[in-house]
Design a protein that fits this description.
Length: 345
């Protein structure tokens, strides 16, 4: 058996999740926008489990901020899951991305908007209004959101061919959505007075990139069974390493490689955090620290949440902490040995 705690994080990064009260509000939102029916218990459970991560990502946010961020994340799941699993043909998928990009850039609804587009428009308008005069923070949020939505289809196409781990890591850095999630905090704390020179500092971007890699490593370990169950897995680094090593018999060695990569990211992050702060005034250190600390919450919170949600749970999941949160409405059970030796996988 594998252990989630083999993913190393400093003790001081431990956190207690926020209240989960925001989830009920958001479930009512999606029912109101026609994205779920009142009696669709499976969809409501699936969405609740997905957006429960927000309590771990934003442990110090107030209730209004939690609803705002949770709504964005809920839209993200509705938008991402069908595109990521190729439920639309390529032409339709690209059209959805283009329409959403235009919605974000123009702040107007497209012709004949879908319920999801109406939901997106409502959420992003709330974010715009929340930022008030600090429109540069909303602009950063929008720019990063557009970058993320345009990464989904290219990432899903990695399933169609053998992919080198380094190629995967480069694209996954964008697609995993850490920078997108970080940008939601730009809205929540749009009144912070971070100097534009700090936002443009390549060391700050390095911290975001390291966080993205780290979260993707944990996600790939946790979600491997779910992805194979959904017919994917060709773009999952954990699965790729297992196959490159020779098969399921090498799962422990593959997991060790993944946890070592994760630890390297954490250690680099700590180094570059000190380097970034050392070049700033005391006032700017205080302004940027909340955003740097949020990246730590994303990394550590993602690890904790992975063991609490039924989104990735499975009765005989190779990571034993992911066996206790199964839900009868969400079935990820799959024979990994058979799947990894299937020539069509």
């Amino acid at each position: 058996m594998l252990c989630i705690n083999d993913f190393y994080y400093p003790k001081e990064w431990d956190l207690v999740p926020n209240s989960f009260n925001y989830i009920d509000t958001i479930i009512k939102e999606i029912i109101g926008f026609g994205l779920s029916k009142e009696n669709d218990e499976k969809l409501k459970m699936t969405m609740s489990q997905a957006i429960s991560v927000c309590a771990y990502f934003w442990p110090f946010s107030n209730e209004e901020q939690m609803v705002l961020g949770g709504s964005v994340m809920c839209w993200c799941v509705f938008f991402d899951d069908p595109l990521d699993s190729n439920k639309f043909d390529e032409k339709k998928g690209l059209e959805i991305v283009r329409r959403t990009e235009k919605l974000l850039l123009t702040r107007t609804l497209p012709n004949n908007p879908t319920n999801l587009e109406k939901y997106a428009f409502s959420i992003f308008e709330k974010c715009f209004n929340y930022c008030g005069a600090n429109t540069h923070m909303y602009d950063m949020f929008t720019k990063i959101t557009i970058q993320w939505i345009n990464s989904i289809i290219p990432f899903s196409k990695l399933n169609e061919l053998p992919v080198h781990p380094e190629t995967l890591k480069y694209i996954r850095k964008i697609n995993v959505g850490v920078e997108f999630t970080q940008s939601i905090l730009y809205v929540m704390h749009s009144n912070n007075k971070v100097d534009l020179k700090v936002w443009g500092n390549p060391i700050y971007q390095k911290l975001v990139d390291l966080s993205s890699f780290n979260v993707s490593f944990v996600n790939d370990a946790a979600s491997a069974c779910k992805e194979m169950k959904d017919g994917g897995g060709g773009s999952n680094l954990f699965i790729i390493i297992i196959k490159r090593l020779g098969g399921i018999e090498f799962i422990k060695e593959a997991y060790k490689q993944l946890t070592d990569l994760s630890k390297d990211c954490v250690e680099e992050f700590c180094y570059y955090e000190k380097l970034l702060l050392s070049g700033l005034s005391k006032q700017q250190q205080n302004e940027i620290q909340i955003f740097v600390d949020h990246l730590k919450c994303l990394m550590k919170g993602n690890q904790i949440w992975s063991t609490k949600t039924s989104r990735y749970a499975m009765e005989d999941h190779p990571i034993f902490q992911l066996r206790s949160s199964t839900n009868k409405l969400i079935d990820n059970n799959i024979n990994m040995k058979v799947s990894l030796t299937n020539k069509d996988f």
